[in-house]
Write a structure and sequence with these properties.
It is a single chain. With 302 residues, this protein is an alpha+beta fold. Helix content is 49%, strand content 12%. It has a domain of 58 residues. Strands 2-6-5-4-3 form a five-stranded antiparallel beta sheet. Helix 5 runs antiparallel to helix 9 and helix 5 packs antiparallel against helix 12. The radius of gyration is 19 Å and the shape is globular.
Amino acid sequence: MYMGLEFEHVSYNCKMNNLELKNYNLEKTLLGGQAFNWDFINDAYYGFTMDKIIKIVPQKNGILWQTYPEANNTLYLENLLNFNNNFDTILASINKDEIIGTAIQSIKDVRLLKQDFNQTLLSFILTSHKNIKAVRKVVRDLSKSYGEKIIVDGITFYTFPKIETIAQLTEKDIRKVGAGFRSGYVLQAAKVLAGNENYSAKLQSLTESDARKELLKLRGVGDKVADCVLTFALGFYTVTPIDIWAMRVLSDLYKVNTKTNYKNLRKWYFDYFGEHTAWAGQFLFEYLRENYKDIKIVSDKK
């Protein structure tokens, strides 16, 4: 699966590293709803950030991996994949009923990434009124227009534009890549980030509630986008974003009345799943997205 990538005859030639990585669903983790910067090409996953391309090749009980142009960035990879946690303990904690149990068995071993803060924030600002496929396209078009070209395995990739680059664009420039009314929000957020080098570190030093309050000060960042950033970039796992799929989980699977405010729905998730709410939310999100038609048919027949 790839979108608009160019094939050329030049390539980085770095030896791949081997990493033991058991019980890790790369497909659902990298190509699911928490990231927009990964593609699966020729049996390998390729991701792009503001300064690098990452290649991951699935192996039995592990992966082969490399980073470009700076090779062997082990610290970055381990932080991104976020695998140094007690996954069995997390699963036991959230496996509270038949519904989540079925999701865990169906969507095996989905993990939570810990992604670059700036890229995650701007990418999720783009999600307003756009589906995952559309956001992936805008992210790639933005990168192709303003990022750095890096060729790996004969494939041309583009890094996500640096914050300083985006901050110097005009709203019209960003609209050209399909961002629509979100263009102004992306630009203004980039300017805030460019002027606050330690912005993400400051947020990580705060409580979940206070970090959210700071994020909500940015134009274009509402409750859902803030919670996406808290979960997928900052590592706050007591919260899961309440998007259309999380709403359907509540209404269709748990029969919760969703005609209330966002804060109450977020509270339901935490009250039920506790400190590992984000992990439960991701299993349920991927499970319902994959099986919604069948679940809906059964539900309608009852």
